[in-house]
Structure formats: C-alpha cells, structure tokens
Design goal:
Helices cover 13% and strands 28% of the residues. With 191 residues, the protein is an alpha+beta fold. Strands 1, 2, 3, 4, 7, 8, 9, 10 and 11 form a nine-stranded mixed sheet that branches. A two-stranded antiparallel ribbon has the order 5-6. It is globular. The chain starts with a strand and ends in a 15-residue tail after the last strand.
C-alpha cells in the first residue's frame, strides 16, 4: 500500500532531501525512508507539500494532466481592484504563455503561524490576502501571476492540494493520510 505524507513546509526549506550548498532541506524534518515530493514548493513559499513512496501516486498528484486544484493563501502588496482580480480569473499572459483561469477572492488574513523572517511590509503600502486556486504548476506561477496584475506576492502559503489540506499541521510537522485520488480517464494498455 502506498504511503502519503502531508508536510507543512516552512519558509526557507528546499523541496529536496539533499543540497550541496548546505541549505535547509526536507531531511531535517522527514525521517521516513523512500518517500519523495509529489510536486514542488519554492524555497520562499510555505505550506502543504505531499510526499509519497509510490511513483504512480506521485505522477497522479503532480502531473498537470490530472489538474488537481491547488489552493494558495497569498499576501500581496497593495489592494487589487476588480480588473486585477478579473484578469487572474481569465488567465494572465506570462513569458511562458497564458495561464489557465484561476479562482480568486479577497479573504481576511488567515490564521497563520509567524513567518521567520517576517514579511517586510511598508507602512505606506497596504497589503491584501487572496485565496487563489490554480490547476497547473508552472515555476513560481502564483508569484508571476500576481506580479503580472501589479500586485507582487509578499507571502505565499499553499493550503490545499485536491482533497488534502494543512488543517492543524504546524510548520515542520507531517502526518500520514489515506489516498483519495480521482479516477483518471486514461486507458491502460494491455500487453
């Protein structure tokens, strides 16, 4: 039976188990043999990361073909107006092409842990929290999307992937959970 770990990745941790430069990695937090990340989360992003010991499960979670929704809580600089939010909903053009439409809404500041180091905020510029849901996973996509509509990301926390969510996991903690993957429409080839 496949193992699935839900991990709350702290800020500054690489989504890998080794690093030649000596930076903080998953090895500091996860001592479960044979599990590997199903997808990525940038070093300067926080939140939910799924790990598994099953290659097929890893593919089903991480591959864009399966379009598992990923929900992010995003603190952005400024106060996005209706046109900025609509642009995110319709998809924005980035240097690697147009993004799929996103679901986005303004939310109250979520009940998060303090970030270390804290986010640098400017007293003269307000910040806004967004809940942004995407179904693809390009490199630094959410940050590039918010910047494209004029509101750079200050803090980025992934709250959910598909049916899995952070719930009460504190940064650096992980738990094992059962698999609830949607069925795929791919036909299996008989040999």
């Amino acid at each position: 039976m496949a193992r699935l770990l839900l991990f709350n990745k702290p800020y500054g941790v690489l989504t890998q188990f080794t690093d030649a430069e000596g930076r903080d990695t998953l090895a500091r937090y996860i001592d479960v043999p044979g599990v590997y990340p199903a997808g990525r989360l940038d070093r300067d992003s926080e939140g939910l990361l799924l790990l598994t010991d099953d290659g097929q499960v890893q593919h089903q979670i991480a591959h864009p073909l399966h379009k598992l929704p990923k929900v992010y809580w995003v603190q952005v600089e400024g106060a996005p107006d209706k046109s900025a939010l609509q642009a995110l909903r319709e998809g924005v053009t980035l240097n690697d092409g147009r993004t799929r439409p996103a679901k986005v809404k303004v939310i109250p500041e979520p009940p998060l842990w303090p970030r270390n180091p804290p986010v640098r905020e400017r007293k003269s510029v307000p910040t806004t929290w967004l809940e942004l849901t995407i179904t693809e996973g390009r490199n630094r996509q959410v940050r590039r999307m918010t910047a494209a509509v004029g509101h750079p990301t200050l803090r980025l926390v992934r709250a959910r992937i598909g049916t899995w969510s952070l719930d009460q996991l504190k940064p650096g903690e992980h738990r094992t959970e059962s698999l609830h993957l949607p069925k795929t429409n791919q036909k299996t080839r008989k040999r």
